[in-house]
Write a structure and sequence with these properties.
4 helices, globular, TATA-Binding Protein, 2 domains, five-stranded antiparallel beta sheet, 119 residues, alpha+beta, 25% strand
């Protein structure tokens, strides 16, 4: 259902702007977006969460930690690292990084995976 709705919305944008999908995509900023899954025991999740938060705060970065367990770390240059427990897969921590630069995204992912125990 979400896919069909998304396609209909895209069709509406193409019609409204009178541009091809390729032209519209060309207007979007290029980003590097990487996702990984790390197996984590439920027992170790709280300690892991504390160590991730401490690591990034020691680097002087703001850490946005939600009670549900999600941790998002905005970084300079409009990059971020995001850690969140899967809601559909038990024992899975999703690690996501986003950056305008592919090399920077890979470096952020290496750091994030080392913290999450998935390196």
């Amino acid at each position: 259902r979400d896919g069909i709705l998304g396609i209909l919305m895209i069709c509406g944008i193409v019609a409204d702007r009178k541009k091809s999908l390729e032209e519209l995509l060309g207007e979007l900023p290029r980003r590097a977006y990487l996702k990984r899954k790390v197996s984590v025991s439920k027992a170790s999740m709280a300690g892991l969460r504390r160590s991730i938060i401490a690591h990034y705060r020691e680097r002087g970065l703001d850490v946005l930690a939600e009670k549900e367990g999600s941790i998002k770390v905005p970084m300079p240059g409009s990059a971020f690292a995001w850690f969140r427990a899967s809601k559909t897969e038990a024992g899975v921590l999703r690690v996501i990084v986003d950056s305008p630069n592919g090399e920077k995204a890979e470096g952020l992912m290496r750091e994030a995976l080392a913290l999450a125990g998935g390196a």
